[in-house]
């Protein structure tokens, strides 16, 4: 199956700073990247869907100016949490897709703690 | 619209006994259904996926699930639990909407499986 590399696996940052999370598709051309967020003891919620070379589509309630997504190539998508607040502390996970080929692989996740 | 309900938030079994994790779904279109496992602070691993082929789907690690359209269910089973099966399990539906959101995954709230020695 597809191999996805997500990093950092864990990051602690101060309130007001920005954090960038990278998701690389190592052997798969990810025309689409799904970004999910998981709060403690809760399920995953889709935040946004990005397509290579175009703007991301955000789910209702997700601030596009706060969670910047860049999907400039078929192998790399980034999520930047800007002006981070403690309530942004969560587990962020990416998952690549290509047409109907999706849902098979997820990144290992990034544990973000904002202090 | 699509949704998924995992009927049990926590299931506890003894090692060597069968596992049953229940899932019901709602979908306006023919859905794809998935089961994932997540160990603590880890990413998700796909156990199996149903995509309108055989209704009994066999996955990894001895797990299988049966798609029952009449019952809108997709329960996950394993004949004999192993200690390493202890983890969080998510039932997921996709393809239940039209247009660009067709590949959106909608997750259930998860079932925590505990395996007792």
Radius of gyration of chain A: 13 Å
Q: What is the quaternary state of this protein?
A: heterodimer
Order of helices and strands of chain B: EEEEEEEEEEEE
- How many β-strand runs of chain B? 12
Q: What proportion of the residues of chain A is helical, as a percent range? A: under 10%
Mean pLDDT of chain B: 90
* Helix and strand pattern of chain A: EEEEEEEEEEE
How helical, in percent, are the residues of chain B?
Answer: under 10%
How many DSSP H or I helices of chain A? 0
Task: Show unreliable segments of chain B.
Answer: none
Strand content of chain A: over 45%
Pair with the most extensive interface? Answer: A-B, 25 and 22 residues
Q: Give the overall silhouette of chain A.
A: globular
The largest sheet of chain B is:
6 strands, mixed
Distance between the termini of chain A: 37 Å
General shape of chain B:
globular
Sheet with most strands of chain A = 7 strands, mixed
Cα(first) to Cα(last) distance of chain B is 41 Å
Number of helices of chain B: 0
Query: Total number of β-strand segments of chain A?
Result: 11
Beta-strand fraction estimate of chain B? over 45%
């Amino acid at each position: 199956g597809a191999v996805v590399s997500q990093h950092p696996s864990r990051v602690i940052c101060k309130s007001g700073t920005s954090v960038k999370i990278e998701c690389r598709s190592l052997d798969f051309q990810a025309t689409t990247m799904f970004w999910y967020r998981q709060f403690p003891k809760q399920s995953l919620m889709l935040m946004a869907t990005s397509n290579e070379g175009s703007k991301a589509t955000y789910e209702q309630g997700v601030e596009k100016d706060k969670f910047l997504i860049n999907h400039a190539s078929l192998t790399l998508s980034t999520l930047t949490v800007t002006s981070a607040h403690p309530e942004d502390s969560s587990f962020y996970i990416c998952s690549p897709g290509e047409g109907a080929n999706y849902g098979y692989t997820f990144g290992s996740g990034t544990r973000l703690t904002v202090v | 619209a699509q949704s998924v309900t995992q009927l049990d938030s926590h299931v506890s079994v003894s090692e060597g006994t069968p596992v049953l994790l229940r899932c019901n779904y709602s979908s306006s279109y023919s859905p794809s259904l998935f089961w994932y496992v997540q160990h603590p602070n880890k990413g998700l691993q796909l156990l199996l996926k149903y995509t309108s082929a055989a209704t009994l789907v066999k996955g990894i690690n001895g797990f299988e699930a049966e798609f029952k359209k009449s019952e809108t269910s997709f329960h996950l089973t394993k004949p004999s639990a192993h200690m390493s099966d202890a983890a969080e399990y998510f039932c997921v539906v996709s393809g239940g909407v039209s247009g660009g959101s067709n590949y959106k995954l909608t997750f259930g709230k998860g079932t925590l499986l505990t395996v007792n020695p």
